[in-house]
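Ticket opened by: R.M.
Priority: normal
Category: complex prediction / small molecule

The reporter submitted a protein together with copper (II) ion and asked that the result be attached to this ticket for the collaborator who will pick it up next week. Submitted input follows.
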Amino acid sequence: MTSKIAAAVSAVLASAVLASSYAADSSATAELKPTQGNTATGSVQFTQQGGKVVVAVSVSGLAPNSEHGLHVHEKGDCSAPDGMSAGGHFNPGGKPHAHFGQAERHAGDLPNLRADMNGHANYKWETDALSVGSGASSVIGRAVIVHRDPDDYKSQPAGNSGPRIACGVIAAAK
Ligand SMILES: [Cu+2]
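Result attached by the on-call engineer:
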């Protein structure tokens, strides 16, 4: 009960997203915009399918053949020019940062983006560590961050993935 309320409150605080439709939505989207001095843009869609969430990512404006850390971060706030307003990794379980395939990791740990020769990256990936719409693991009101460097999947607290080059607040789909 408490965590449900806390999630609802933070979603409202973060971006005044549609509190009335909060519980009914099963999909949410983040529109990624470049932080100051950067060029990456794109979108990330989260779709609840039974006990799993399908994460569909599409990003362009990356350096050719580059690799980038990608995470759900705690705060749905991309207002800072460097994206630091989004806070640390979304980590409702209070776990260490790790590879996205590990059980003991941040819920917000996602696979790295790998750009092609045109600077475009996309993937689809499923996880049961996130949810859309209710509970402590809901992504609504959080943010997605693209980092300049690859996540090494082990350094604490964020995989040594460097500055934030794009940020997007995750909002419930209508
Ligand atoms: Cu991150």
